[in-house]
Amino acid sequence: MKVGMIGLGKMGANMTVRLVQAGHSVVGYARTPATVQSLVAQGALGASSLADLVRQLPTPRVVWLMVPSGAPVDDTLTTLKGLLSPGDLVVDGGNSYYRDTLRRAALVKSWGFRYMDVGTSGGIWGLQEGYSMMVGGDAADVELVRPALESLAPAADKGWGHVGPVGAGHFVKMVHNGIEYGLMEAYAEGFAVMKAKPDFPIDLHQVAQIWRYGSVVRSWLLELTEEALLENPTLDGILPWVVDSGEGRWTVIEGLDLNVPTPVISLSLEARIRSREEDPFAERLLAMMRNKFGGHAVKKEGAP
Q: Choosing from 10, 129, 143, 173, which is the catalytic residue?
């Protein structure tokens, strides 16, 4: 099949290459011409603009968005409104908030186009390992893009599925990322406990390697942890600054709305937020409280 790929960041570019390697025709567009040319060199077709991309696609067109969530998606859809024809299909494969997806789907359908969402996981390893894809949309639309989905997944019948109507794909991906937050935090805390134990000179890389085989905590995240500890055992030069893409927050909010407790995901999100505080006021205030009620010592800046 022929697909128009809009947004050629790391994931979008790798997805384009994987589709090309599987024998599909992909027209790629990015704001940076050099990015487009690098993919043309790998077998993709290039477009100089969104209008040029649309012109190169047969009807009904399949336009796949891999742009950052939020305003970039809305801006791209606004531009496409004047370029696409009735019956064309827009696929949002980025990390959009599912509530935004529901709003956009209704808007795009009012224009006469079709809309579906594909929550995509796999990161920079997707080109090699395949992508995990959670698909939301009408069954007919899913069938239209099935050849691409089967080529992008780890196998035609593995790693992807139609999980519900429009919005369901991004909803499931949101929860997926919330779970990811909890898993990462648990690994980080466990390894920190082992590192802090003075009685045992534990090789953290060795432990990660042991746990990868036969252990109930083995996972791809653990494989990546082992790789990181091999490359930099003491994490020299790495700041304790952890960003969040928003999906962990959305998962916590959804849990509150549904009266479903999510304590692990909530605390892992708070840990990421705390990691970004360069001057934690709350901890300084705690120290002063202890000093006031118990006379406990307060460490001053510059003091040993």
A: 173
- What whole-number distance in Å separates Cα of residue 89 and Cα of residue 116? 8
CB atoms within 10 A of CB 225: 22
Could you tell me the pTM of the whole model?
A: 0.92
What does the CA dihedral 181, 182, 187, 193 come to, rounded to 10 degrees? 120
Q: Which residues contact 300 (CB under 8 A, 6 or more apart)?
A: none
Catalytic residue list contains 277: no
Q: Is 7 helix (H, G, I), strand (E, B) or coil?
A: coil
β-bridge pairing 25-29 and 2-6? parallel
Q: Report the candidate in 75, 73, 81, 64 with the shortest Cα–Cα distance to residue 29.
A: 64
Nearest to 45 by CA among 8, 9, 80: 8
User: Which residue carries 């990546």 as its tokens?
Assistant: 224
pLDDT tens, the chain, 304 aa long: 999 999 999 999 999 999 999 999 999 999 999 999 999 999 999 999 999 999 999 999 999 999 999 999 999 999 999 999 999 999 999 999 999 999 999 999 999 999 999 999 998 889 999 999 999 999 999 999 999 999 999 999 999 999 999 999 999 999 999 999 999 999 999 999 999 999 999 999 999 999 999 999 999 999 999 999 999 999 999 888 898 888 999 999 999 999 999 999 999 999 999 898 888 888 888 888 888 887 878 888 776 6
Catalytic residue among 10, 180, 283, 292: 180
For this structure, is 173 an active site residue? Answer: yes
- Token look-up 């494969």 returns 93
